[in-house]
């Protein structure tokens, strides 16, 4: 009887969730339109939770906090409390700010921690195991942003995530695929396997209810004690004990010292639009503005979307911005002389533009700078509330599921963000390893990021909220979505769906998604000297964007169809 009622309960929950989901509009090629408020994220369930907060009178920051905690339950490959990220915020009255909750290197970290006795990088070590884990920043960042700009009770914003973890969510097809693909890695870590597989080791099938009880308990401490529920007390004790047992570096002192930082965003203009984006320790905002500045000198519309000249120009502009990124950028608190003002100036862009030939691809020189990227997961969401306050939030565990390690008894994945530091001091090579000093490891330093949460204004009014995951492709994806809207007159859904290209200086390679370039365009690009590399369909980040069609008073939003569980929720 008991068994039967449990079965009945599960079935009812599942049916309820399915009915509920079937009403969630999901973006894709057609934007979702709404009058009041909107959330677009990599999880339709999390977007819905954010939207409910908006509907109940919460503002964009409140909705962002609730969505971020919900994503930590529903999209654990990147939604997190064990990682870090950035918020760019614009209030309805035009004030802009940003919150930096990037992870930090533990106090015991040092420049040569990933090298063997001969000074060579131990393969994979900076992305694997407890040594790759940076001091998490997400809870501190959300708490600080809420304390400053939130208006709903903190507890009410964490509660929905606790319910999802406790009552369970339907295991999605994507989660099921991930659990198969990562079987070897997860099986090797008992605290991960225990949560990601059933008790007998079998898979959760798509649609089966998946509960995360340890995560629910951790979230309850965060709900009740705020920031301290993560950085002190039981959560901190368990995390530090787990680190000690497994040879990790994070201590109580690291956790207690962690602070999120409110920073002034970087700003630029593009064809009269005001671009507001994330400053260092992200390279995203600076590189985005630098590329837009260079591109302002070309008539991209006339060149035509994805013509050979257009793709060539973009690739050359990307190559230059990524070379500067590699040479100059790192944590601003450790690099007080970083030339940000110069990099985002129109004069410097003009000088760089002069060095671009329309006929020949430049060569990327490995005796100078660039970096290869092989990670697969971060997540972005965009929020606009009924008053026009906007949040652009990107956060990450670095690789998909971070270090693949769930902290024992705590239920959340730990990041492997230490892999974003330059691992071998002084070694920059054509394969894309970077050794420049601004981003070398130092205790308490923040590793350089590419995350580019961005907000755009037109005529002093909110116009666009955009961001994406995708490692170094992030900056180029945000760039291309912006160009698709501003130069190519695409609506936000088409702008996000359109196939993309990517160049990051080193390795010297022009990546393109399947169907991005016709065979004759490819031939023309090859004849200019580009080394082309075709990626699979939808190989790049999951962009999540909202555009305000101000003249008509509508919000138009889209969730990238590259994101399997993504969705827009709006009212
Ligand atoms: O901060 C960064 O730039 C990287 N850790 C982001 C990683 C990422 O986007 C992986 N996702 N697809």
Distance between the termini: 42 Å
In the sheet with the most strands, the strands line up as 1-18-17-13-12-9-8
Helix content: 25-40%
Estimated share of beta-strand residues: 15-25%
Bound molecules: 6-diazenyl-5-OXO-L-norleucine
Overall body shape = globular
**Could you tell me the number of beta strands?**
19
How many H/I helical runs?
A: 20
The class by helix and strand makeup works out as: alpha+beta
Uncertain regions spanning at least 5 consecutive residues = 12-25, 369-376
Sheet of most strands: 7 strands, antiparallel
The radius of gyration is 22 Å
Describe this structure in words.
The chain has 571 residues and is α+β, with helices and mostly antiparallel strands. The protein has 20 helices and 19 strands. The protein has helices at residues 2-22, 44-55, 60-74, 138-149, 154-167, 173-181, 183-187, 190-196, 213-225, 228-231, 233-246, 252-257, 284-295, 300-303, 308-328, 340-343, 346-354, 473-486, 492-497, 519-527, and strands spanning 32-34, 38-41, 84-90, 96-101, 169-170, 209-210, 261-263, 266-270, 273-277, 378-384, 390-396, 454-458, 461-466, 501-502, 510-513, 532-535, 544-549, 554-559, 567-570. The strands form four sheets. The protein has a seven-stranded antiparallel sheet. A hairpin with a 4-residue loop joins strand 17 (544-549) and strand 18. Helix 2 (44-55) packs antiparallel against helix 3 (60-74) and helix 13 (284-295) packs antiparallel against helix 15. The two termini are 42 Å apart. The chain binds 6-diazenyl-5-OXO-L-norleucine. 6-diazenyl-5-OXO-L-norleucine binds at residues 375-378, 396, 398, 417, 420, 449-451, 469-471, 474, 541.
